[in-house]
């Protein structure tokens, strides 16, 4: 980069390489790359790699890196690393470790912001918080969700309950999952827009696996293109697939 284009690689460039390697499942190469880079890696780089471990289900590496991150980097008051760590543990069913992370967060007075999704309908922005029932049309929205879920189950769709970060029974987990903010926004969009039209949603956090899978199935069953921007990137759901190819 420098020889040919006169650009010194910055942390963001290193981040791109780590992301590419992690996406490709080359976790070992990604880790080695971080260790060998000539500038100090930041928390974002380690998180990118840990997220890669979660996606590619390399829990040993994830845990080792988490320990490192916990020792070295968690001095900052940034709750994103804690949230990521909690997610990794929850996805592996390690509820004890998940609870420990939550405790650490509480001790530091860090609160995960609630999930919030926005959707624009005829020039007006509607915002939904997870489990929200304050919208004037909340009743309609929740019954639409029940209808959608029934349809999805008939198609063989199973909620991904491992994503719910609590030790509760599966039925309760499924219930909580079904009220994530992007699902509320989507149900509202399906009610308010004409069949076949595109739905656009903006979310403040990363979506959970279940919401992502849910959007994919809806795009197929309801024949709707859904564009969802989350904390990290844009997802374009169409005919049962997502532009991110399930890596986000
Ligand atoms: Zn969700
Ligand atoms: Zn996606």
Q: What does it look like?
A:
By secondary structure, the protein is α+β, with helices and mostly antiparallel strands. The protein has 2 domains: 2-107, Serine Threonine Protein Phosphatase 5, Tetratricopeptide repeat; 116-242, no CATH class. 52% of the residues lie in helices and 11% in strands. The protein is built from 11 helices and 6 strands. It has helices at residues 2-5, 11-23, 27-36, 43-55, 59-72, 79-91, 95-107, 138-154, 170-177, 181-192, 209-221; strands at 116-121, 124-129, 199-203, 226-229, 234-238, 241-242. Strands 2-1-3-4-5-6 form a 6-stranded mixed sheet, covered by helices on one side. Strand 5 (234-238) and strand 6 form a beta hairpin. Belongs to the PPR family. PCMP-H subfamily. This is DYW domain-containing protein. InterPro entries: DYW_dom, E2_motif, E_motif, PPR_At4g14850-like_plant, PPR_rpt, TPR-like_helical_dom_sf. Keywords: Repeat.
Strand content: 5-15%
* Class by SSE composition: alpha+beta
Biggest pleated sheet? 6 strands, mixed
Q: What strand order characterises the main sheet?
A: 2-1-3-4-5-6
Through-space gap between termini? 27 Å
Q: Total number of β-strand segments?
A: 6
The tally of helices reads 11
Summarize the structure.
The protein contains eleven helices and six strands.
Map the helices and strands.
Layout: H1 2-5, H2 11-23, H3 27-36, H4 43-55, H5 59-72, H6 79-91, H7 95-107, E1 116-121, E2 124-129, H8 138-154, H9 170-177, H10 181-192, E3 199-203, H11 209-221, E4 226-229, E5 234-238, E6 241-242
Parallel strand pairs: 3-4
Antiparallel strand pairs: 1-2, 1-3, 4-5, 5-6
Helix pairs in contact: 2-3, 2-4, 3-4, 4-5, 4-6, 6-7, 8-10
This protein binds zinc ion (2 copies).
Residues 177, 180, 207-208, 210-211 line the site of one zinc ion.
Keywords: Repeat
Pfam families: DYW_deaminase (PF14432), E_motif (PF20431), Eplus_motif (PF20430), PPR (PF01535)
Domain DYW: 156-248
